[in-house]
Write a structure and sequence with these properties.
Structural class: alpha/beta
CATH architecture of the domain at 140-346: Alpha-Beta Barrel
Radius of gyration: 20 Å
Number of helices: 18
Strand content: 5-15%
Number of strands: 11
Largest sheet: 6 strands, parallel
Strand order of the largest sheet: 5-4-9-8-7-6
Helix content: 40-55%
CATH class of the domain at 140-346: Alpha Beta
Order of helices and strands: HEHHHEEHHHEHEHHHEHHEHEHEHEEHH
Shape: globular
CATH topology of the domain at 140-346: nicotinate phosphoribosyltransferase
Length: about 400
């Protein structure tokens, strides 16, 4: 076998650790199911990768955290010592994850205790991506990727020639799951660190943050909110408030950017009252029109009489550098802004990126759903539950299912 794709359990998004700790402390008994989905047909059938995928999963399940890695995690002020102790003995269990094929389709499912299977997601996506793109001309891809990377750096440097807005531009790498390769992500992030340090402020990749001495970035993802849909500890109508309250109690002021689109921005804002608006530092956009979303956020803060200059909006939905700059110029005189770019940083190689996800589909045997503000991002395997959820939160289902 060639050099394994995953060589460290830190080579994943920070929010996997922050959600992991919260679930370990509050709901360690949850049983969960995650499924891999390819949203668009790839140029090469993913089923052809099955043997390599299984070998990579075998290797992943043999990895452990090193003492050096545990010291790094333990030095993050929001990571608690008992979670580090748990990670010291943690190892992915191979029986909890299965990869198989049906025709040209690759299927991967992780089923088991959530605190033992939730970590698979990012590694699986990184593995499938890298194996897939190894099938193409690497020399041509890397040359084109380098050319495009240099363009991005120059686009960013235009900020230095403009009149300053009230709040600075801040860029983050969010590209682990969609990267061309681990080596290419390292090169891209290192380039931005060296060439544009005044604007490039961190990465979601914990290993890269450690290796390059930059800030690890991340708070929560949809799976955190979705789990609360199925816990049964509160009415479904109150699952967002329960999830937000648990986060506040776990982190007590740290990691204060809330994700807004598990059931859509409008439904989120109905639950994001003055209490939460004061406790959280800001909001993250991941679907729908970013300008419309941002204006709704600012209007909500204004209605609550909160100074928007004290809050932050983080945009992270399929961005490239020009789009991020456009959004920045629209909002930066009114609110702090951050921009997390994934695919267009770490897999802009002249090749068509894969559209793949690995998402939570059920918890404790109950279906969960992500509705979001973009029809193409809707995820749910149970139409009955989806219709019930939309009724509870007054979301129009026909609009969500339209092409």
């Amino acid at each position: 076998m060639a050099q394994p794709i995953i060589t460290s359990l830190l080579d994943t998004d920070l929010y996997k650790f922050t959600m992991w700790q919260a679930m370990l402390h509050r709901h360690p008994q949850v049983q969960a199911e995650y499924r891999f989905v390819c949203r668009r047909p790839p140029a090469i059938p993913l089923a052809s990768l099955i043997d390599q995928v299984n070998r990579e999963l075998d290797h992943l399940c043999a990895l452990r955290f090193s003492e050096d890695e545990l010291r790094y995690l333990g030095a993050l002020r929001f990571i608690k010592s008992d979670f580090v102790d748990f990670l010291r003995i943690f190892q992915f269990q191979r029986p909890f994850i299965r990869a198989y094929t049906e025709g040209d389709d690759l299927h991967i499912e992780a089923i088991g205790p959530q605190v033992h299977v939730m970590g698979f997601e990012i590694f699986v996506l990184a593995i499938v991506n890298e194996l897939y793109f190894r099938q193409f001309d690497a020399e041509a891809a890397l040359a084109e990727g380098q050319r495009r990377l240099e363009v991005k750096v120059e686009e960013l440097k235009t900020l230095g020639r403009e009149a300053a807005l009230r709040h600075p531009f801040e860029l983050f790498d969010f590209g682990v799951r969609r990267r061309y390769s681990a080596a290419w992500q390292h090169h891209v992030v290192k380039t931005f660190v060296q060439e544009t340090p005044q604007w490039f402020k961190g990465t979601s990749n914990v290993k890269l943050a450690k290796d390059l001495g930059i800030v690890p970035i991340g708070t929560m993802a949809h799976e955190y909110f979705q789990t609360y849909q199925a816990l049964g500890v509160v009415q479904l109508r109150k699952f967002q408030k329960a999830a937000l309250e648990s986060w506040v109690q776990e982190y007590r002021g740290d990691l204060g950017i809330a994700l807004t689109d598990t059931v859509g921005m409008d439904a989120f804002l109905r639950d994001f009252d003055l209490y939460f608006a004061k406790l959280f530092d800001g909001l993250r956009h991941d679907s729908g029109d970013p300008i419309v979303w941002g204006e709704k956020a600012l209007a909500h803060y204004a209605k609550l009489r909160i100074d928007t200059h004290t809050k932050r909006l983080v945009f992270s939905d399929g961005l490239n550098v020009p789009q991020a700059l456009r959004i920045y110029h629209h909002f930066a005189d009114r609110v702090q802004c951050g921009f997390g770019i994934g695919t267009q940083l770490t897999n802009d190689m002249g090749l068509e990126p894969l559209s793949i996800v690995m998402k939570l589909t059920s918890a404790n045997g109950q279906p969960v759903a992500k509705i979001s503000d973009s029809p193409g991002k809707l995820l749910c395997d149970d139409e009955t539950f989806l219709r019930y959820l939309t009724q509870v939160f007054d979301v129009q289902l026909p609009q969500l299912l339209q092409d």
